[in-house]
Design brief:
About 35% of the residues lie in helices and about 20% in strands. The protein contains ten helices and twelve strands. The radius of gyration is 20 Å and the shape is globular. By secondary structure, it is of the alpha/beta class. The relative contact order is 0.13. The protein has a seven-stranded mixed sheet with strand order 8-4-3-9-10-12-11, with helices on one face. It has a three-stranded antiparallel sheet with strand order 5-7-6.
Length: about 280
């Protein structure tokens, strides 16, 4: 998913726009209210750099008028660009690889089609890795399995839907997986790979804000992947999101978290089953 952008090294340069403490404070409050992201004080230079691009694109002369517009027009299209500007997407195919054998074993034992929600889809590497794992584990049965992939950042979702990546993104992948799951670009597409249609068709991409009052989700899942997302939310927000996950998990379902995330002390609804893998305490 799109998460809070990492800060760039501080460089002493003359700024095009005045960026006051009050402006930075407003940005922090606005992104927290809109997306739940908690920006530390050390992110000030990053915030200026990212939002200054929006001011230039819009022909704005100062941060104050730009932020005024957003606050006065809660449904303005610019909110999407504001959120996209303040998020970044760190992802890779089969990232945190220890999770995928657990998913494979779970899918093999489940006995029917498996439904997965990946709520931090980013540019698609994670949901496609999930789909590939299901195919490897379930064979032909995987064709009925589905992956819902959501993110708040509309830009990365468009890239994910395209399912095309620079070849270096898969350079470390096993040859067998490369042959089985990717098409190699030729001619004008040389140096790129495309996820094979049968894998891409398993994944459905939708825009979703985890802080939205309601989620347009009318299904239950065997597995939820929520990895490296919660670290950007404060503890009360984390607890609320975990509470909302509970009715969306089928009995015996699993929740996968990121390597630096620990839900044990945040929610009583989940108990640790393995390394950053949880199950519903009331549904196991």
């Amino acid at each position: 998913m799109a998460t809070a952008a990492t800060s760039a090294p501080s460089i002493s340069v003359e700024r095009q726009f005045d960026f006051r403490d009050a402006d930075f404070s407003r940005v922090r409050k606005m992104i927290h209210a809109r997306a739940g992201i908690s920006l530390g004080t050390h992110k000030r230079e990053m915030v200026y750099s990212r939002l200054a691009r929006r001011l230039r694109a819009l022909g704005r002369q100062d941060f104050g008028s730009y932020l005024d517009q957003l606050e006065n027009e809660p449904d303005a299209a610019e909110w999407e660009d504001f959120v996209n500007a303040l998020t970044t997407n760190l992802t890779a195919f089969f990232r945190e690889s220890h999770h995928f054998p657990i998913l494979a074993d779970f899918a093999q034992k489940r006995g029917g089609p498996v439904s997965v929600w990946c709520c931090a889809a980013s540019t698609g590497e994670e949901p496609y890795s999930i789909a590939m794992t299901l195919v490897e584990a379930m064979g032909p049965r995987a064709s009925a399995s589905t992956v819902l992939a959501t993110d708040i950042d509309t830009n990365v979702l468009n890239r994910a839907r395209a399912a095309v990546y620079p070849a270096e993104r898969v350079a470390k992948m096993e040859d067998e997986r490369l042959r089985r799951f990717f098409l190699k670009g030729r001619g004008a597409n040389a140096g790129q790979v495309r996820v094979r249609p049968e894998i891409a068709d398993m994944v459905r991409y939708e825009t979703l804000n985890l802080l939205a009052p309601s989620w347009a989700i009318n299904e239950k899942f065997d597995v939820i992947f929520c990895r490296n997302v919660m670290i950007y939310f404060d503890k009360p927000t984390q607890a609320k999101i975990l509470e909302r996950f509970v009715p969306l998990l089928k009995p015996g379902g699993l929740l996968f978290a990121g390597h630096s995330e620990n839900f044990t002390y945040i929610s009583r609804d989940f108990r640790l089953r393995g390394q950053t893998v949880y199950e519903c305490a009331s549904k196991a």
